Amino acid sequence: MRKWNKKTKIVFIIFLILAVLFAALCWKKRRGIYNTYMKLTGQEIPYSVQEKRRKKYGYYDQELNASMNLENPVYITENDGSANEIETDIPKETTRIASSYEIDQQLQAELENGYSWEEPMVIQNPYQVSPLTAVIIFDTKEECAVRFTVKGKTEAADISGEVESAASHRIPVIGLYPAMENTVVLELLDKSGKVTDSQEITITTDELPDKLDDAVKPVKTSGESAFELTMVYGQRTTFPFAYDCMGDIRWYMSGEFTSGIYMLSNSRMIVASNEAFMPSQDKPQTTNLYEMDYLGRAYTMYYVAGGNHHEVIEKEPDGNLLVLTSSLEGHIEDKIQEIDRQTGEVVNELIMEDIFSGKYEDRVDWTHLNTVSYQPETDTIVISPRNLESVVKLNWTTKEIQWILCDPRFWEGTEYEKYVLQPEGDFVYQFQQHTAYQMETDLDGDDQTIEVSMFDNHYVKVRKSDVLQYFDGEKESYLLVYAVNEAEKTVKQIKKIPTVWSTITSSAIYDADSNHIFGMCGHVKDSEDKRRGMNYEFDYDTEELINQFSIKSYYYRASEMKIDWNDLAAVMEIKDNYIMGELYQPVKATWFFWQKKPEQVLDDGEITLHLTGQVLYAGAYDHQISQIIFHGKKNTYVYDTTDIRLHTKSYLKFYENIPVPLQGMEADDYEIYVVYQNEFYDLEQNIKIK
């Protein structure tokens, strides 16, 4: 046998080393050999591999090798004054809280100047957010309660409230009509509730903004409703508004509010602001959540690192917040966090990949969570992962699945089919459902069951190949109520009320006091008049249609406006540190001796900068910035988004402010550089952290 000479051996060894290195590289990058091996062995290629190979849009060059640590956000607790601890020429902008509080203090000072019952002062739209509101201030000689009524076009449309006994009064007014002289009746009440004096005040209002012209059109009105005011908000309805039982708009918020509004048990609301957004693999998500009241006062702001979508709900009344967010680890709209209401800290969380994996984990928005709610008696949550066509109940502490409500054929052949509730009786299963909640009312008279309500959009778009073989194709949506026997793992459909076909968003609401059920259709698919929303009010038992209102624009949800008049009348109180929460932070550069300075300076206006507290807001179009570099005399930090790859081209046109927290950076004098559209620029801005 021929022996190899020394030169041949060396060539072979070099070849073998290169082959091993090449194979290792392929394995690391998940290309070639790895994919071939997975296919040959009949195994599913992990989505994390597929996602990295998908076409991406935007810019991803790095000047410094760094990756954002999604497992290590910085915790923030501060106020607007915290910005004073940073020396910079970058403009400083305050939160809604600071402006609300300043106005409230001015109003209180005005009250202390003394206005009589005979000549009260009327301050319309006092907080410059809610034009159809007012505050009336006056003193009375004796302490007394005050009842007030904004007179409606009908008696049923009157909006009345009452505030507790006092001698100095701040009377909140909500429910003025636009573009008319409104009559407001004030009545003084003694301890027994008897009227001791009364008067009428006239308040004249301006016209509605153009976006709200013809926003509500009555289709059928009974002249009264279980909801005194019905709020409509989100999506294309950028000015949230509320209408009365006759379909007249009686409240709205000025400004752009395209994201969600979520009702709280204290009759305030969480408002998702357009101030800042976190880039994602798809739609950017708002990071700033305000607790606000209907006069427009803001009390607290929460930062959500991965951005919020679809839902913020109280775990229990006045308790912690359950917030839907995104993992950003190849997926969006797949994560739930429990945020401490008092501190803003995340105290519990769940990523959907931790409970479901495998067959359906095949796209960026693979679950599309749109509701979550908590049952304290069992420490369970009910979630609605829309793109899994399922409603799921699981333990919030252990994360163990209790049951799954969906067509059993969806999970057939998977490890999860054992959790699927078995149907009894006739069924129309839900598809791409919204607002799936466990109900408090016993609607079937069986104490062995719990009821679950939802809005069944009854639409198949995301998983056509999986469900078209058994989807009935009906072009209408439904209000559904199920009775679930959790012990026997069975389910009955006890209510199905059809509505116009609303393919996304929308909500179903059951009102126990009136026994009415509402269908809020926020995305009407095929309307002849091109109006995009429809709201229904039905009697639950008879299914009789009581009221129906057509809405001009697409919207996210609609719900009842519940008002706490005493809260609105009270002097505003805020915490010392009313800005709280978590944000993804810049990472410290490992290149200690990096001294590179950009040769180019970016034109004014390409990127905007401002500070709120100690968070730098960098404004640009989505995925145009790949790195923001803070280069100091001793330290260098990098805010890097290159691992968050955009897969939807249309969002390149979305302008956003990215919140970059400076709280985790060491004291130094930093110059700010940026990698913008794959070019390295000096922003000619400095920040000095003391």
TrEMBL record:
Q: Ranges for the Arylsulfotransferase N-terminal domain?
A: 122-205
Q: In its UniProt entry, what is this protein called?
A: Aryl-sulfate sulfotransferase
Q: Name one Pfam family in it.
A: Arylsulfotran_N
